[in-house]
Write a sequence for this structure.
């Protein structure tokens, strides 16, 4: 884990470091030797999540970007504090990738739509950048309706297929009323023809989930041509565990559907 992030005194009271959201440092091929760490943070004055940046040349000493926050929820598309049920603004979990379609970078963000029932507002937002510093935020690339939140997104491209993983434990009442949908807590994914979306929820069964939510916030790692899955062990027999699973290989069927044997984790 990288060491403490230094802060500019004039910004410290406005923007503090929150929990890093598994995006990890991103190294730009065009800026050799500089690492970019994207993280979620909160202001002291309001419970609004925003996206921040710190940089390093050695992965030990980090400097907070003076232009923070890089991104915050735009009320044109996303929920604002005055329209939130609890006064919080969900805008977190940045996942940054090189744009597969060309130059530049894409960032996927956990967010909530500005309108609709509270338990149906979960969406994933998209931002674009040419230099990892200046970002342009777009509207949601997933449709609201099924979940209150879609957390810790991860983009995956394999065998020419585009996947966007997410985890959730908050299905909407509308989704639960559908007899073809099953209640679950864990990791699933969306599919698309391109990285920018739009993205469509893959049908059940979910990739790695159960009704108890034993495994959460799953991640895919490519290793020697294999797709491996790891997840946080949240609970067992309804008791908190807080562990990490062993890596297991993901099964990809002929239709591109992903699945993980939970008994192997």
């Amino acid at each position: 884990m990288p060491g403490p992030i230094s802060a500019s005194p004039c910004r410290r009271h406005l923007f503090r470091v929150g929990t890093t959201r598994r995006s990890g440092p991103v190294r730009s091929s065009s800026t050799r030797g500089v690492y970019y760490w994207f993280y979620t943070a909160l202001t002291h004055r309001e419970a609004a999540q925003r996206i921040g940046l710190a940089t390093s040349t050695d992965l030990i000493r980090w400097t907070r970007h003076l232009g923070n926050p890089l991104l915050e929820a735009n009320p044109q598309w996303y929920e604002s504090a005055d329209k939130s049920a609890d006064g919080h603004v969900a805008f977190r979990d940045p996942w940054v990738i090189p744009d597969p379609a060309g130059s530049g970078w894409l960032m996927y963000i956990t967010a909530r739509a500005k309108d609709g029932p509270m338990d149906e507002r979960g969406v994933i937002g998209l931002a674009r950048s040419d230099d990892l510093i200046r970002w342009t935020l777009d509207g949601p690339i997933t449709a609201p309706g099924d979940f209150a939140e879609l957390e810790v997104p991860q983009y995956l491209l394999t065998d020419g297929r585009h996947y966007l993983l997410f985890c959730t434990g908050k299905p909407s009442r509308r989704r639960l009323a559908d007899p073809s949908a099953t209640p679950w807590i864990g990791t699933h994914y969306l599919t698309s023809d391109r990285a920018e979306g739009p993205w469509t929820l893959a049908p059940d069964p979910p990739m790695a989930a159960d009704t108890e939510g034993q495994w959460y916030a799953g991640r895919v790692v490519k290793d020697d041509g294999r797709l491996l899955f790891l997840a946080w062990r949240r609970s067992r027999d309804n008791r908190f565990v807080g562990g990490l699973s062993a890596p297991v290989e993901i099964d990809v069927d002929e239709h591109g559907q992903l699945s993980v044997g939970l008994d192997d984790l």
In short: The chain has one domain: 5-214.
